[in-house]
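Lines hold sequence, tokenised fold; shown next:
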Amino acid sequence: MTATAAPTVLTARALLLDMDGTLVNSDAVVERVWRRWAEQHALDGDEVMKVVHGRQGHASMAVLLPGRPVEQNLADNARMLAEETADTDGVVEIPGASAFLASLRALPHALVTSADVALSTARMNAAGLPLPKVRITAESVGASKPDPEGFLKGAAELGVDPADCVVFEDSGAGIAAGRSAGMTVVGVGPRAGLYDPDVVVPDLTRVRVAADADGTVRLHIG
């Protein structure tokens, strides 16, 4: 399927939702924290920002500073997670996120995020959004997106075959992870369109959810 904003209907048994850039707009915080880090390491801030979306922090550092000891990346990551958790200035919902989550209340869905428990809780609360009951966070996986582990764990937690899941993502790493998991991917926002998701929408106001009697979830997009 070619990426499009034209009216489309997708079917699924469960939905797997990224957080940053998909449900929550946290770009202001991410920019502040990562551009400071880039300056500290004499890296071009614009180039750093092309890498960091969708990945766990230490995984981004491994890409940007190849050969640097893992221990240093993990230490930096822990410090930066604390900074990001404390800084919620400018964190808001992606348009339509609240209504979208409300429409999923009785349907199988999970949050699959590269953030840890503290950061994901802080950002969802700051945006005024409810946390899904099933959450796959940084603590849940051994490998960061673009590895598909998080999405596969989300499907397993929900008891749904990966092929019957639809992923909502905004980043290149996340879209690659969803595709590697064998799932249909809906791209959300301007970044997503650069990475060839199956369908792309500007925000979640363009998605309506309905459920059939047999449990099939129908996504009306566009």
In short: The mean pLDDT is 94. The radius of gyration is 17 Å. The chain is about 35% helix and 20% strand.
